[in-house]
Amino acid sequence: MATWQWARTSRTRTQRLGARTDRRRPTGLAACAVAVALVLAGCSGDGPGGSGGGGEGDATLMLAADKGSPTFEENFNPYLQNKRSATSYIYEPLIMVNPLDAEQVPWLAESWEQPDPATIEMTLREGVTWTDGEPLTTEDIAFTFELIQEYPALDTRGAWNRIESVETTDTMITFHLQGDDTPALPVIGQTLIVPEHIWAEQDAPDTWANTEPVGTGPFTLGNFTPQQYTMDRNPDYWGEVAIDQIVLPSATEQLDIVNGNFDWGYSFMSDVENTWVGADENNTYWFPPGGVLGLLPNHDVQPFDDVHVRRGIALALDKGRIAEVASEGYMDAASQTGLLLPNHEELLAEDIPDSGIIAQDADAAIAAFEQAGFTHDGSTMRTPDGQPFTFAITTPNGYTDWLRAVQEIQRQLAEIGIEVDINSPQAAAYEANLSSGDYEMAFGGGLGGGDPYASYNSLLSSEFYAPNGETTQNNRIRYQSQEADDLLVAYRSAVEEAEQERIIGELQHLMFDELPGIAVYHGGMWGLFNDGRFTGWPSAEDPYASPQTWDSAPLLILTRLEPVQ
Amino acid sequence: MRYALRRFGLFALTLWAAVTLNFALPRMMPGDPADAAVARLAQNGPVDEATRAAVEAQLGIPDGNLIEQYLTYLGQVVRLDFGVSYTFYPQPVAELVGDALPYTLILVGAVTVLAFCLGTLLGVLAAWRRGSWLDALPTVSGSFINTFPYFWTALLLLFFLGYGLHWFPTSGAFSPTAWPEWSLTFIGDALYHAILPAVTMLVTSLGGWIIGMRNAMINTLGEDYVTFAEANGLRGRTVALRYAARNAILPNLTGFGLALGGVVGGSILVEQVFQYPGIGYLLFNSVIGQDYPLMQALFLMITVSVLVANLIVDLLYGVLDPRTRR
């Protein structure tokens, strides 16, 4: 589940020389890689000056979006998990979905409609070409979907779990779904489209590294070296793009970001005012919420099947304080509704008090436990059979922010006489424990995200239920409720926006009343920007895109930025 | 001859045990490679069933029973076919190891040989001039510096020489824009990037060699045959090097053999600090990502080189020290 902030202790390393720096022994950074006119020909990487990039008339963006390990492997296959980050700036989706609030933006599909809940009709944008000059046709769309059907390893969003068949005309693509399934639209729409005339010739597209990528996006691959690669502007791009070149170095640890003259980075930063903002007068940051973190009780472990116990725990916690301790004060307490605030303010059910943020109230917490048959003798909380109440919270090893949150939760629960142990297995073991139900209570994400329905569905639907000992990737809290299932199914047949919002409202009430998981605070998105060379970054005032540097979302930003003249 | 055969037999047995352990250990780790991959993806948002299924399909996580997996694995070991890495999918393991090995061999190998030669010479000198400043200085400073953890020395050098003074690059094995090739420019660039990690390892490992050699040498210098050689009026240098050091070096030679075997493993901490694309860094990544194929290849390579180094030292001992042949 989501760790928007995996604040690892940064290994001490310093910057790769950024472009536009001549403060130190330069490595002639972009200068050599890029065949920019003003560059010293044949520079070997240690010539003096090295003012690489950033010359007049070439708008070069230094982007910390990709991390070498420690060097880059060439892999531009958009469906493989180890692809270079910039692969998503080459291949484009039919529909762009803003991760902050799931707003859908027409991309390669100019428009779409759902004549009934089991059909999607999309109209292809006209005049789009591949970077080798071939036109984009509906054939390419049909081919892409055939490809990911034939190679399920490439179907990373599970489009074929929803699609029955795909039909095309010259301008239209029609998806027939396996049943009523309006939420399938963003899943199908976010599939990255590849050119048939190139991919059809590949024998093994599922292991193909695609080192000469041909896409429709605003950038093409420039120079590639093991420690840095560049992306050049696609002059024939169908949309607007004002960036001539992007430079992506492999060294993008926190220290590199602070010292590397980056225009855009994505990283949790301790003490951001002094580290990032202090590094350059034009540095700014925007840390919007990207998900809801909290406690995930295993409903197949007693007493967590009892709503009073879950409410007691929720009431015992000072969520603002936990947010402060865990996220260094960047994030706020989260709403129990599972909605992201302020991202989803207009969706919030009006009759839920305090935007659904449950305040700490020790007396009410103890009262809730007493309703579940527990007794509190002033110092110890005892279970109905008289034993002191203790349980373990599982959190991944190395996620220091989560660990701080869990330690604070441990401290706060001790105040009402509940003893908490902390299990911190390695991240992989944590995933395995949650999937197989081998835990009592876990700390993690998945209690809410940019797309409210998708979050509710994967958190609550019994469709994914598996008893402890069997694995499941969704509904790992093993929650079963007829009411939730009915609402989730009803949504799939709802084409009208008003009806969709009504159901989301009902689900908020369910989250608030039943507490399937206990929302604590927001997981952050850690956008770091520099206004000196480019303007138009998303911000709290203009939250048009998530600041993330992976997947398709960066295209929203890259096509919006303007170089400073 | 019987001695050599016995050594070879032991070598084969140890090798089989190592290969088998190498198969078993990664599989005893909690969580499987798909869990590790999903955990990595989950840092960017929730992962659903479909994505996990795609990841599993991509990785081709082995199923079937353990016996079958073991036999397949033995076959692959014999053919030196290690398959495709999980964390660097679809890169073949052999390529990844091949890319990383030169950096580690050259950096760690050169430093180990240099540290051994320099340390041994200094040790001989210290023992021969025992009590003088030639003894005190290397011995005391050596044992002092020897207690510094590698990574700490690395961080210090990085901070002062890399950050503070900007004399050296602070990460990587070559400049960001360089492409690895056999050209003077690139080799110069690579050597320049290797200075800080090399100095780190040299400084921290030198002390051990000095002290080991000095102590063995002082013991030997007390032997009757050395006194006899001196009484015969042989030159000091001849006595020190041909009589005493020749015998005193034996224990240090063992250490050297083992150190050489360990070279292949790289130096995880130093490579981490300097972001040096060698075997140590690769090993770290493979363990974090539960990358069985890569882990197996690396551990196998490391154990085999340590075992081979051991075998060579054993056989050399037989030549150098006739007493062992009994």
Strand content of chain A: 15-25%
- Low-confidence segments of chain B, ≥5 residues, pLDDT <50? none
Largest interface: A-B, 84 and 65 residues
Helix content of chain A: 10-25%
Q: Report Rg of chain B.
A: 24 Å
State the helical fraction of chain B.
over 70%
Binned strand content of chain B: under 5%
Number of strands of chain A: 22
The span between the termini of chain B is 11 Å
Number of strands of chain B: 0
Q: Sheet bearing the most strands of chain B, described?
A: none
How are the strands of the largest sheet of chain A arranged?
8-9-10-1-11-20-12
Basic shape of chain A: globular
Q: First CA to last CA of chain A: what distance?
A: 42 Å
Class by helix and strand content of chain B?
mainly alpha
Structural overview:
- The complex is a heterodimer of chains A (565) and B (326).
- Chain A is an alpha+beta fold and 565 residues long.
- Residues 1-57 of chain A have low confidence and may be disordered.
- In chain A, the strands form 6 sheets. In chain A, strands 8-9-10-1-11-20-12 form a 7-stranded mixed beta sheet, with no helix packed on it. In chain A, strands 17-16-18-13-19 form a 5-stranded mixed beta sheet.
- Helix content of chain A is 24%, strand content 18%.
- Chain A has 15 helices and 22 strands.
- Chain B has 326 residues and is mostly helical.
- The longest helix of chain B is centred in the middle third of the chain and has 38 residues, at 184-221.
- The mean pLDDT of chain B is 83.
- In chain B, helix 1 (2-28) runs antiparallel to helix 13, helix 5 (93-128) packs across helix 8 (184-221) and helix 9 (224-231) crosses helix 10.
- The chains are: A alpha+beta (565), B mainly alpha (326).
- The interface between A and B is large, with 84 and 65 residues.
Labels describing this entry:
A: 565 residues, alpha+beta, 5-stranded mixed beta sheet, B: mainly alpha, 13 helices
List the helices and strands and how they pair.
The complex is a heterodimer of chains A (565) and B (326).
Chain A: H1 29-33, E1 60-64, E2 95-97, E3 104-106, E4 109-116, E5 119-124, H2 138-150, E6 163-168, E7 172-177, H3 184-189, H4 196-199, E8 219-225, E9 228-233, E10 245-249, H5 254-259, E11 264-266, H6 272-275, E12 283-286, E13 289-297, H7 307-316, H8 319-327, H9 362-371, E14 375-376, E15 381-382, E16 390-394, H10 400-414, E17 419-423, H11 427-436, E18 441-444, H12 452-460, H13 482-492, H14 497-514, E19 518-524, E20 527-530, E21 534-535, H15 554-558, E22 562-563
Parallel strand pairs in A: 1-10, 1-11, 16-17, 16-18
Antiparallel strand pairs in A: 2-3, 4-5, 5-7, 6-7, 8-9, 9-10, 11-20, 12-20, 13-18, 13-19, 14-15, 21-22
Helix pairs in contact in A: 7-9, 8-10, 12-13, 13-14
Chain B: H1 2-28, H2 33-42, H3 49-59, H4 66-79, H5 93-128, H6 133-145, H7 150-164, H8 184-221, H9 224-231, H10 236-263, H11 268-273, H12 279-288, H13 292-320
